[in-house]
Design goal:
The structure is a single chain. By secondary structure, this protein is α/β, with parallel strands linked by helices. It is 37% helix and 20% strand. It contains 8 helices and 9 strands. The strands form 2 sheets. A 6-stranded mixed β-sheet has the order 3-2-1-4-5-6. Strands 7-8-9 form a 3-stranded antiparallel β-sheet, with helices on both faces. It is globular and about 45 Å long.
Length: 267
């Protein structure tokens, strides 16, 4: 009897389907795993922007996690939007109780506009309780600046920022440089054994909504399949890059559309 490799996403829902839980389910499925969810917030959004959101009570979040892990189990967990500090300790306790071996944390803290998406208390709780359990954290530049308090003006600032993040307990750090200028899109993996660089030509497209959710979920899916960390990140980076390239062929909505999660299955 065959068994699924399973990934649980603990994150917020995107009614537009391009990011959050919806993007996670698509990416995990496209990368060969069975996707499960624990929803932390329900957002009201589309390709143009976020109109509002409703936070799911902490006990309901914890209940979703327990229901999934005590019955189905998970080979990896992806963490996204964790909007309140009340839900973070129960999440951390669940990860320890059920001995989840691979945890990918996408620290969704700062919007593209620069606005904070979570409270300072929640950010502090994530640093204290979640980072020490994380196999990998995947911040973009604004998120890394907010978490560390360090300005990041160029790629030369990445090593110090990554070191600060690892000092908070993260096993490894994938810093995403999409917010910096340049004709290339460069990501840096700091895993304690050095720096691994992934470079791709920057794609001119408005369809980039949900790239961070998609990337972190893809990494979790490959870790669930027992890929070594560097290989898991490489496979996830290649998947997301091609999803962006193929996504520019389509138009969905009036704002920033999604990447093409299922390009491998469409002709």
């Amino acid at each position: 009897m065959k068994k699924y490799k399973k990934v649980l996403s603990i994150a917020g829902s995107d009614s537009g389907g391009g990011a959050g839980i919806q993007a996670d389910i698509k990416a995990i499925s496209a990368c060969g795993c069975y996707a499960m969810t624990a929803i932390t917030a329900v957002t009201v959004q589309n390709t143009v922007g976020v109109r509002g959101f409703h936070v799911v009570p902490a006990e309901v979040v914890a209940g979703q996690i327990a229901a999934v892990l005590e019955d189905i189990g998970a080979d990896a967990v992806k963490l996204g939007m964790l909007p309140t500090d009340e839900m973070i300790v129960p999440i951390a306790e669940s990860l320890k109780k059920y001995r989840v071996r691979s945890v990918v944390m996408d620290p969704v803290m700062v919007a593209t506009s620069g606005d904070r998406l979570i409270s300072e208390a929640a950010a502090q709780a994530i640093r204290r309780h979640i980072f020490p359990l994380a196999t990998l954290v995947t911040p973009n530049v604004p998120e890394a600046e907010y978490i560390t308090g360090m300005p990041i003006r160029s790629e030369a600032d990445f090593p110090a920022a990554a070191a600060a993040l690892r000092d908070m307990g993260a096993g490894a750090v994938l810093l995403k440089a999409g917010h910096l200028d340049g004709t290339e899109l460069t990501e840096y993996l700091f895993d304690g054994n050095g720096c691994h660089t992934f470079r791709y030509p920057r794609t001119d497209t408005p369809n980039t909504h949900g790239t961070g959710c998609t990337l972190s979920s893809a990494v979790a899916a490959f870790l669930a399949q027992d890929y070594p960390l560097e290989e898991a990140v490489l496979c996830a980076e290649n998947y997301v890059h091609e999803a962006i390239v193929r996504g520019r062929e389509y138009r969905l909505g009036n704002g920033h559309g999604p990447v093409h999660h299922f390009y491998r299955f469409w002709e």
